[in-house]
Amino acid sequence: MADDVDVAHSADAPVLERLPMRDENGEIRREFVEDISRAIRVADAASLRAIVAELHEADLGDLIAALEPEDRVSLVELTGADFDFSALNEVDDSVREEILEELEPETVAEGVRELESDDAVELLESLDEEDQEEILEKLPPLERDALERSLLYPENSAGRRMQTEFIAVPPDWTVGQAIDYMRDTPDLPDRFYEIYAVDKARHWQGAVSLDALLRSRRPVPLADLIDEDRRRVSVLDDQEEVARLFGKYNLVAAPVVDTTDRLVGVITIDDVVDVIEEEADEDLKAPEGARRRHQPRRIIRQCLDHRQGPLQLAPGQSCHRLSGVLGAGLFRRSTGKDGGVGGAGADRRQPGRQCRDPDHDSRGARSGYP
Hints:
Blueprint: H1 15-18, H2 30-41, H3 45-54, H4 57-66, H5 69-79, H6 93-102, H7 105-113, H8 117-124, H9 129-136, H10 141-152, H11 158-161, E1 167-169, H12 175-184, E2 194-198, E3 204-209, H13 210-215, E4 233-234, H14 239-249, E5 253-257, E6 263-268, H15 269-285, H16 296-307, H17 320-330, E7 366-367
Parallel strand pairs: 1-2, 1-7, 4-5
Antiparallel strand pairs: 2-3, 5-6
Helix pairs in contact: 7-9, 14-15, 14-16, 15-16
């Protein structure tokens, strides 16, 4: 593949080094798309899997859009479990619907199971009810129930946008217990910026940012770190209002509560940027007189400025960016003695066993309550 690439690479170099996807202007190389198309025609599944495994979901979405319609479904089928279904959220609705309609429901269901809940809902909500049900019935009951609940929230609401993966712990734990719990829990959310304190009925008690947690010694009570006034949103809030909240207060994550103040999910900056881009696109397509008066470009700048790191933070704000990016991986490592992340120091206690909220599925909240 890619005979025209004149840069020498070792045979064991990453595929995308030997077969660059983009040119110097960031555009997809025509030769790359042709090579992928040839591999699809000869059913070279091994090469396709190797390439797809290295692509970010956004790049995979761009590749799908660049392929001929008849090659798109074949790419998904040939790459099997290596295909990231979140890439389908990166393409136009018409392209996504065309691919999903051609795939077997069992194939789509397996792909959905690998997605975070918000990505799974975004994928499913583009289908009509009959197609949704056909896919949902292929899922295990708990996972199906959770996704069906999310799809019941109003369109464009926080309930639709939220992910149900988050970490909830008792407010009377110590820093050490919380860290041990996260380290001992195998299926943490891929990325998270804070953990949440809830009572046994999962009512909201407050939030603890990861930077505050990591700066603190193991014996420190979580109650000393809990921010009870943390800004949160309701499942029924409109997604545009949520985006404005993020822009106004420079948020990177916001807990989502139901009408009884029960913690049910979290919205992150990634979700909000998607909302802003969608709304901006709708505004550009609308007649001049019908365009809404909000300012998506300004909100995007505010949100993205906050993501650039600690130099961009307003006085008194915490640096969530680093801790959020580290996410689950950090708590699977052990350092030091009795410092904030220490795994072998004093006050190491076995955390409460992992359990699931009965109103959430196996992809849902991680709770320290026994």
